[in-house]
């Protein structure tokens, strides 16, 4: 029998009394090849993973088949007449979710390859995966927002509560007909997080009434000692995105525990604070918040610093413009706006018991910039040593350019003397807490 395979740069032939096939080791071709040929001759072709007489293939595919394959043999009887069929280069093993009735694969029955179809190359498609640790209100808001914005192909959920974990997973899976396609998986075992691009950590202890920030951080450090090494074990090339509070200190903890370079450990920081800041000004100016630009930097908390000197509306520096027009902006007014930003989360918690949607959208914006290499600038918690006179190895928020490799660079934004002093004071407060941590 003569088998011909025609490629873009020539052809080669196999001369043998048996049908010979180069395939992936996973292909169960010994029996399938002969059976498929028989079915094809009867007009009942159902198995795409077959050898064939003549089909156009790219030279790279031919080489891949030779390089990765094993030789499988199946005795062929009768004549072969097939001008088009498909070879499953990656694997012909059926997916565990494939539907079978009476031994027939329904997927293969319902979907037939088009004429002259080339083999699918699954290795060429990059699958993006995001892990969310902690399925509380914040964690699920992050997961839901990432899914609705179609930012990841797979979402892995991890929590210590198996029942809640499964319930949240099913609740999202049941909405599949209304959402962009995403594979949603969940487990208490961190093995489910393997090969994640981004690992979002929202798990942690809540602050008790009267509890100091240091005590809260210390309690969360014990959680992080269990979480971070597991994430690193299964996704050594991932970017860690920390949302658990106090976010700046815990981002520092995650950096130390992970051993990752600092550009791959990021805290959500003041990304949400800055959104609240822009919304408050936009409301008063009656413009869209997208056209109001300004940053809150420093600690995500009481010592945060609003950068009034760089606030602009539609490209117009607001404070300078008002001063040029002879309009004096009272310092008390600016401080009140900043106080509203700082107290914003407390107000929401007082009214509904927790915050969720705003931080979910904030996290999704960071994931989008990172996964899609957007190069957008976000005020996030980064290792700030060496910036604006900060000498301590401390994490706090600065405007950072984010892309596929994590933090690409820190924006050299000019600060006034007062803003610099406040930022340095914020750094010292955080450094004092970090020095007392057991890591």
From TrEMBL:
<dbReference type="InterPro" id="IPR036291">
    <property type="entry name" value="NAD(P)-bd_dom_sf"/>
</dbReference>
<comment type="similarity">
    <text>Belongs to the LDH/MDH superfamily. LDH family.</text>
</comment>
<comment type="pathway">
    <text>Fermentation; pyruvate fermentation to lactate; (S)-lactate from pyruvate: step 1/1.</text>
</comment>
<dbReference type="Pfam" id="PF00056">
    <property type="entry name" value="Ldh_1_N"/>
</dbReference>
<keyword id="KW-0560">Oxidoreductase</keyword>
<feature type="domain" description="Lactate/malate dehydrogenase N-terminal">
    <location>
        <begin position="129"/>
        <end position="267"/>
    </location>
</feature>
<feature type="domain" description="Lactate/malate dehydrogenase C-terminal">
    <location>
        <begin position="270"/>
        <end position="433"/>
    </location>
</feature>
<dbReference type="InterPro" id="IPR022383">
    <property type="entry name" value="Lactate/malate_DH_C"/>
</dbReference>
<dbReference type="Pfam" id="PF02866">
    <property type="entry name" value="Ldh_1_C"/>
</dbReference>
<keyword id="KW-0520">NAD</keyword>
<dbReference type="InterPro" id="IPR015955">
    <property type="entry name" value="Lactate_DH/Glyco_Ohase_4_C"/>
</dbReference>
<dbReference type="InterPro" id="IPR001557">
    <property type="entry name" value="L-lactate/malate_DH"/>
</dbReference>
<protein>
    <recommendedName>
        <fullName>L-lactate dehydrogenase</fullName>
        <ecNumber>1.1.1.27</ecNumber>
    </recommendedName>
</protein>
<dbReference type="InterPro" id="IPR001236">
    <property type="entry name" value="Lactate/malate_DH_N"/>
</dbReference>
<dbReference type="InterPro" id="IPR011304">
    <property type="entry name" value="L-lactate_DH"/>
</dbReference>
<dbReference type="InterPro" id="IPR018177">
    <property type="entry name" value="L-lactate_DH_AS"/>
</dbReference>
């Amino acid at each position: 029998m003569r088998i011909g395979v025609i490629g873009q740069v020539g052809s080669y032939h196999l001369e043998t009394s048996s049908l010979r096939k180069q395939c992936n080791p996973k292909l169960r071709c010994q029996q399938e090849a002969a059976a498929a040929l028989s079915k094809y001759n009867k007009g009942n072709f159902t198995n795409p993973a077959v050898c064939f007489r003549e089909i156009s293939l790219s030279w790279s595919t031919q080489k891949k088949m030779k390089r990765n394959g094993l030789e499988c043999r199946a005795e062929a009887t009768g004549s072969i007449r097939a001008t088009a069929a498909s070879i499953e280069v990656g694997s012909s093993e059926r997916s565990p979710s494939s539907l079978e009735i009476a031994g027939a694969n329904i997927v293969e029955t319902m979907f037939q390859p088009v004429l002259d179809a080339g083999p699918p190359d699954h290795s060429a498609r990059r699958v993006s995966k995001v892990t969310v640790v902690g399925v509380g209100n914040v964690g699920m808001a992050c997961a839901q927002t990432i899914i609705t914005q179609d930012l990841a192909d797979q979402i892995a959920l991890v929590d210590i509560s198996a029942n809640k974990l499964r319930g949240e997973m099913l609740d999202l899976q049941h909405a599949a007909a209304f959402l962009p396609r995403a594979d949603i998986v969940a487990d208490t075992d961190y093995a489910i997080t393997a090969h994640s691009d981004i690992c979002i950590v929202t798990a942690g202890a809540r602050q008790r009434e009267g509890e100091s920030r240091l005590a809260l951080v210390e309690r969360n450090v014990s959680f992080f000692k269990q979480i971070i090494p597991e994430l690193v074990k299964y996704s050594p090339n991932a970017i860690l995105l920390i949302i658990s509070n106090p976010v700046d200190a815990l981002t520092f903890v995650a950096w130390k525990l992970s051993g990752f370079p600092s550009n791959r450990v990021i805290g959500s920081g003041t990304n949400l604070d800055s959104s609240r800041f822009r919304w408050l000004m936009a409301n008063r100016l009656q413009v869209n918040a997208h056209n109001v630009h300004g940053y809150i930097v420093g600690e995500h908390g009481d010592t945060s610093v609003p950068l009034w000197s760089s606030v602009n509306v539609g490209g117009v520096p607001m404070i300078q413009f008002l001063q040029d027009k002879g309009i004096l902006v009272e310092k008390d007014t600016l401080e009140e706006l900043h106080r509203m930003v700082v107290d914003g989360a407390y107000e929401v918690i007082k009214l509904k018991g927790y915050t969720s949607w705003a931080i979910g959208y904030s996290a999704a914006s960071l994931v989008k910039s990172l996964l899609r290499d957007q190069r957008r600038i976000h005020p996030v918690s980064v290792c700030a040593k060496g910036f604006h006179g900060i000498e301590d190895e401390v994490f706090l928020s600065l405007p950072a350019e984010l892309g596929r490799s994590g933090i690409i660079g820190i924006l050299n934004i000019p600060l006034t003397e007062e803003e610099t002093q406040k930022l340095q004071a914020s750094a010292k407060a955080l450094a004092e807490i970090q020095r007392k941590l057991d890591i």
